[in-house]
Amino acid sequence: MNARTSFEALSNPERYRFEWVPCYQCGETKCEPLLVGEEDLTGKEGQFQYVSCSSCGLSYQNPRIHLDQIAEFYDSEYIAHRKKKNWGILTPLYERAMSKHDREKIKLVSNYMQLNAESCVLDVGCAVGTFLLRVKDELGSAISGVDFKDDLSFPRFDEIDFHNGLFYEQDALVPESFDLITMWHFLEHCYDPARSLQKAKQLLQPEGRLIIEVPRLDSRTSKWFGPKWPGVQAPQHTVLFDRAHLEQMVEQADLEIVEHLAYGAFPSYFYIFAGNYFRMFGKGMNLDRIVAPYFLGQALLFPYLLFERKLNLAMQTIVCRRKP
Predict the structure, then answer these.
(1) What gap in Å lies between CA 152 and CA 83, rounded to an integer?
(2) Are 258 and 320 in contact (CB under 8 A)?
(3) What is the pTM of this model?
(4) CATH of domain 3-74
């Protein structure tokens, strides 16, 4: 069965508009069906097809939902945009986990560069901006953010030099003006990842660093959960990157790879927990009800998670710079 025939067999609301796209990496139009993903986190309707490029092998969503309809999948239920902070007696644990995520980002960055009050930092896909605000508070750096959502009001959000819209269309950002550009789980959402990498290269200072974190298709949890792997997250994720294709796309943008890491700042445990939940209960995770089981499971798996960086569980991070 070819990709078009397999897509026609899927169940989608008539109001969804889809568009067929060539491979993001090589431009090939021929592709083979790979898997069918759903919006498992919130339970929104729809079935979304991922394919494998017949030429270079990149895995990506095809056809993809039209750009002007994707915003409805990034509403207040989308995990990165949730503003709820009151989780009852578990609130301290929740706040600690959220704070730890941003601290892990800064720790990862500090392995490759030292930021200070003279530094300029851009976070692409900044969501409500908690990472940037921590950078400002701890390191004093100037902070800028880009996100296509325009209703991201959050405490102190006005302290961020915020740019609304698609990253690769941000003409107001000054070339060679940023010491650090971060893409924490942005590139797999992008509708033109190659163009975004070119834009990042243009904005980086000559000695700057670009840090990209994405789910890793050739990881243990991807093999365990298949279409229910949280890294699929359809239809928001347009590309499913394994290590080879992520590195190839970065190199095609004329960026030099400093290091590839088989982990990220985002906890792989979330993918273990969510993947098991989706496989057992189906889509539609009620975050209010799973907070307690989440932390309990994390405590039970703590010894195993100590070796996360060596186990290739779910995440990958690539650190790169402009070629000399």
Answers:
(1) 9
(2) yes
(3) 0.93
(4) 2.20.25
